[in-house]
Structures are given as structure tokens and as C-alpha cells.
Amino acid sequence: MKITGFILMIVGLSLSIFTAFSFFTKEKVVDLGAIEISRDVPHAFNWSPFVGLAIMVIGGFLILWARKRS
Predict the structure, then answer these.
(1) Would you say 14 and 6 are in contact if contact means Cβ atoms under 8 Å apart?
(2) Average pLDDT estimate for 52-64
(3) Cα 46 to Cα 20: distance, rounded to the nearest angstrom
(4) Which of 28, 44, 48, 63 is the most buried (most CB within 10 A)?
(5) What is the pLDDT of residues 1-32, one digit of tens each?
(6) CA-based Rg of the chain, rounded to a whole angstrom?
(7) Cross-strand bridge partners of residue 32
(8) Which residues make beta-bridge pairs with 42?
(9) pLDDT digits (tens, 9 = 90+) for 31-52
(10) How many C-alpha atoms does 55 have within 13 Å on its Cβ side?
């Protein structure tokens, strides 16, 4: 349980620091036989820093719970 708690703390910290994830996909615009024109379409996935904070709190509770059990 301690290892899981530490992993959740690290994941929560990284989610609090990095609050967005962007990626690109290719979209076909024109297809005329041998000629093909495509463009990059940006996509963004955003989350609140409070999500990372909540995950860090859960990880802290797991660490404390593992200490009380042993």
C-alpha cells in the first residue's frame, strides 16, 4: 500500500504541474487520385490542478493507512 500511495503522490504532483496535454492528428482535406492534401488538426486535453491535488490526498491517506496497519 505504501508503494501505491507514493505512486499516487507522484502522479498527482505531475497532474498538478502539467495541466494540459496537446496532440495533433492528420485530416484529409483533398483527395484527387494521386494528389492528396492533408492538414494537422490540434487537440487539447485540459484538466484542473485540483484533480492532481485530490489524487495526492488519496495517496497520502493510503500511506497513513499503511503505517497504522503495520
Answers:
(1) no
(2) 94
(3) 4
(4) 63
(5) 889 999 999 999 999 999 999 999 999 999 88
(6) 21
(7) 35
(8) 24
(9) 888 889 999 999 999 999 999 9
(10) 19
**Long-range contacts (CB closer than 8 Å, 24 or more residues apart) made by 62-65:** 62/1, 62/2, 62/4, 62/5, 62/8, 63/1, 63/2, 63/5, 63/6, 63/9, 65/1
pLDDT at res. 33: 84
Residues recorded for the chain: 70
In this prediction the pTM is 0.70
C-alpha grid cell, residue 9: 503522490
Give the pLDDT of residue 1. Answer: 84
Distance CA 65, CA 70 (A): 9
Supply the DSSP symbol for 25: E
**Separation of alpha carbons 41 and 43, rounded Å:** 7
